[in-house]
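User: quick one
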Amino acid sequence: MTSSTNALDRTNYLNATKGFMSWFWTIDHKRLGLMYLWSVVGCFILGGMFAMKIRLTLSGDVDFASQTAEQMNAYNNAFTVHGAVMIFLVIIPSIPAALGNFVVPMMLGTKDVAFPKLNRFSYHLWLIGAILFVTTLFVGNLDTGWTFYPPYSTGYTDVSVITAVLGAFILGFSSIFTGLNFIVTIHKMRPPQMTWFKMPLFLWAIYATAVIQILATPVIGISLLLILVEKTMQIGIFTPELGGDPVFFQHLFWFYSHPAVYIMILPGMGVMSELFATFSRKPIFGYKSIALSSIAIAIFSFIVWGHHMFVSGQSELMSIIFSALTFSVAVPSAIKVFNWIATMYKGSIAFTTPMLYGLSIIWLFGIGGLTGLFLATLGTDVHFHDTYFVVAHFHYVMVGSALFGFLGGIFYWWPKMYGRMVDNKWSKIACIMSFVGFNMTFMPQFIGGAHGMPRRYAAYGPSAGFDGYNEASTLGAMVLMTGLFLALGTLLWSLKKGKKAPANPWGGVTLEWQTPSPPPEHNFEIDPPVVGDPYDMSLFEWKGEEEGFLPVNPRPDDPCVANVQPS
Amino acid sequence: MSTTTTVAHEGGHGHSHDHPKHLAHHFETLDQQFDAGKLGIWTFLLTEVLFFSALFVAYTVYRSNYPEVWQFASQYLNTQLGATNTLVLLLSSFTFAWGVRNAMLGQIGLLKMNLAITLLCAGGFMGIKYMEYSHKFHEGTLWSGNEDTIFRLHAEDVPEHIKEHSHAWDNRDGEFSAAVRDLDPEFRQKLGIFFGVYFCLTGLHGIHVLIGMLLLLWLLLRSMRGDFGPDNFNAIDFGALYWHLVDLIWIFLFPLLYLIS
Ligand SMILES: [Cu+2]
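Assistant: Done. Structure below.
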């Protein structure tokens, strides 16, 4: 392709400067986004290794009695590290920090986020936090579960809790600064024509996420700091032997960690809104209700934390109130799903790789969300509490929806990031494999959990009757892992061999598609285009010779159309 | 506020194009830059409030569960020193606010003086705090898990050397309402929780004062270098906002901890 809509042969943000420091010390939001992306992928592989260790420990008919103490300790360590790495290092930064950094300023038509140096500082904080977490693997046997509940974490387990908690504390501040940056960027750097209700829905989702990040994360920060102080100085606030109250920690912990679920899922929902509109070639259905439901979810998320403590000795009245409030979160979530489906209705749907991830999420989030209602119900929760039902539920929400949203977003914006198209066939096979493998892994856990299979056990023994579920689950995990590695393979392959991408391969109308792929250093070669309706699909049409979409009424100075003027 | 930032652009500082000296490349106007900074610092202050919130909640929960413990414990805090520190911080907030005004008006001499006074006040605050802390370590009025605390469940666990010089332990001069040694053991242990909360809250606040001192030092050095003036005072303005918050948190801490009666 000779068109100028691909900028790989020109100066772009990837090749403008070279060398380690030009990346490590960059303030370019796009480079920072990519560094987050690859760091998160690295941590995902680390967390995934521990997931496989869990699965391999549980499959095969290992008898409880035949397990040595070391083996069981190693198992406790595996599920703790898996959970903590996946949550703090992977899912929380995945979409906001990696994709958000890359996309948000471009969607706004600006050169950068409001505070580029703070952005760089966030990334370096993230690195320090990640290094502390990896250190944890060597200093001891972290076995508290990712929740760090006292008095076990503060009294009985070893010192690895200190590095882990410190790492999570620092990661928290990285997340806060990212959120702060996005809030200010979205408030103050929108182009004049872009009113709040002309913003792409991804920005609404990132905004709602950022609100949670800045309001909830400081609370987990101080709570983890208190765990640290308690562990090192026995300050007494959480320790019953010293007169303190361990359930108080649970309140503080879940005051953050429930909203954190929405830090993980809301950006994924934002990605989905973009995917469904673009690939149905239809304006998004119910724009305002999707936008406002993000805000509603953010608000609701702060008043439901008590549903994690139904069996922790919380008063019955509190439990009833928290149960009812939890149900109410289902409303804005369902609004989104209905709107997405209505968007696809009578659309001309393109089954591209990103769209397949989007469609997967409807299934995964549907199941994850609806099983959440079982857990919000007081009576059933007493039965399901601490069983694999809970494990399956949150994996459907956090892995199913957040991770698939992340992958969908990666495949959607990949041509913009690297200027290359991913192989269509193999990336679709990868998506389908991951989807099938995911369901094979976690569906049996729902059933096992409903039959009372408790979580966090290193072995059950044949008489418990759970071996079949574990075998099936492990098999599914293998398929899932293969699918995910295949997806990674297609991405890496495209960097060398992929077709050169046009500026707008999918027909998106948001501003990032109106600059060459990959973009120049300051995002736009000319002044960014005038902002219209972000979902007016009639503004772009497919051009076969370009293998991409072009504006119907191009501006004369638009670098993305210069070469296709009829001559 | 924002009107003051639209300063006349003097030109002639080497830039050929019309881009004000202190405007970062990704902003369109100085106004936008100032507004973004302002929203950024306010958002940050909001997170700071929430950062402290868990400890304020801890305070509230334990105080409402054990009101008599809180009341009793408060008598071990030195109200005079606490009140002095309140005044010191109020003065420092005033001088910092005045400094912002100085920067806006280009009164660089006054700016340097005010920043220096603010820094001195902050140092004074930490000095007084140090006196208070060391007195508590001497008396053994410490959190439950400390080895040298007098608030132990079992009186025999309190080290002899602490008993010897702790006035609170046996109410030597009769200045307290009761001797700690005679208290109900559970009650005694809960007093340790009060001091756990006290040390966490004032400690975290103290860390913020230290950060503020570093900030003040940096601003002072920059103002000596001649960085600030009517066309560039954002850093001073935002630093002052942070300092006011640190001050404000103390304004809450003082009555909540020292003035329970
Ligand atoms: Cu929850």
